[in-house]
């Protein structure tokens, strides 16, 4: 019985860790793409202003 509980607890902890990792990476990717889009928009604005 103790073995089964340990397996379930381990599965739960691993699942939570994976979900948290994906969420953190998604936020990082969102920040990177936002910066890229802002840089492209600024470059286009500067180019049109010439």
Summary keywords:
50 residues; mainly alpha; 1 helix; 96% helix
Strands, helices and their partners?
Blueprint: H1 2-49
In percent, how much strand structure appears in the residues?
under 5%
SSE pattern:
H
Query: N- to C-terminal separation?
Result: 75 Å
Q: How large is the count of helical segments?
A: 1
Helix content: over 70%
Number of strands: 0
Mean pLDDT: 88
Enumerate the spans where pLDDT stays under 50 for 5 or more consecutive residues.
Answer: none
Rounded Rg: 22 Å
Query: Class by helix and strand content?
Result: mainly alpha
Tell me about the largest β-sheet: none
Cα shape: rod-shaped
| The number of domains | 1
Offer a quick outline of the entry.
This protein is mostly helical.
Written account of the structure:
With 50 residues, the protein is mainly alpha-helical. It has one domain. Helices cover 96% and strands 0% of the residues. The chain is built from 1 helix and no strands. The model has no long low-confidence stretch (mean pLDDT 88).
């Amino acid at each position: 019985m103790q073995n089964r509980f340990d397996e379930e607890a381990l599965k739960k902890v691993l699942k939570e860790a994976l979900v948290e990792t994906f969420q953190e990476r998604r936020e990082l990717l969102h920040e990177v793409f936002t910066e890229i889009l802002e840089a492209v928009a600024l470059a286009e604005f500067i180019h049109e202003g010439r």
